[in-house]
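User: quick one
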Amino acid sequence: MDARSLAAPHSSPQTAGRSLHRFANPGQFLRLSGAVLPWISIAGVILTAIGLVWGLFFAPADWQQGDAVRIMYIHVPAAWLASAGYMGLAICSVLSLVWRHPLADLAAAEISPVGAGFTAMCLATGSLWGKPMWGAWWVWDARLTSVLVLFFLYLGHVALVRAFDDPVRGYRAGAILALVGAVDLPIIKFSVDWWNTLHQPDTITLTGAPSMYIGMLWPLLFSALGYSLIFAAIVLTRTRAAVMERRIRALLMARAASDAASEPVA
Amino acid sequence: MTYLPYIAASYTLGIIIPAGYALSAFLRAGRARRRLAAIDTRQRRRGAST
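Assistant: Done. Structure below.
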């Protein structure tokens, strides 16, 4: 296969950029997100409720951990979303730095506080699970430490984006931090394989069969899907608010400029 | 149920944190929508009067 056949015209970066900018239209984003938001919010709440009630009252207890295993139905989705949220943040950062996608800047700024909240939830529930199982609230284990680093990366992004008078400079700096911090994601994923950790290895992987009883797996999948939809709904709602706030600022500035222009010169 | 305090605390966090974020996002979007509608209406009135 020669280089020309690989570089097909429809896949050029310029074409991809143009098609991305089509979706960056704020009016189109508000219309599309307004249409899907009620559905993903309702589905998220229902699936999460089913997963949590199932996990709390109907799923079996673990033969070793007893009922403490029920913390899994909160902790594991929070851990997945902490990493997935950061992946979303990194993708938005690429879109922002490469294609100057205006919605990507706003989405990145709105993902990081939500991701920080879910990472805090993962750390807190992990601590609540660790105390009865390991006898300690916290250990400096590779998995726990790398997730704590992720939490600080989120907080750093939240602070950095808002630290500049010029929002565009804040978005650029935040995007660079997010991309540099993305190196933490494979460390989190493989920490349980690379180091001898107290944290257990993954029981669910994309490539292999889950090493978990099916009666525990189903409520976990419901809970994970439900929390994912709730995460998406929160980020979409915050991004919609950010788009509207940007439009408010633009209208107020345009009005101030027209008022200043129409004032009679003394 | 064994370890009930730990489980109860985890489920409380698992509900309160997403609910808090969802509520604050919903209120913020509602505030922005009302403010934008008010500015747009004023702008249109100004445009009509000039």
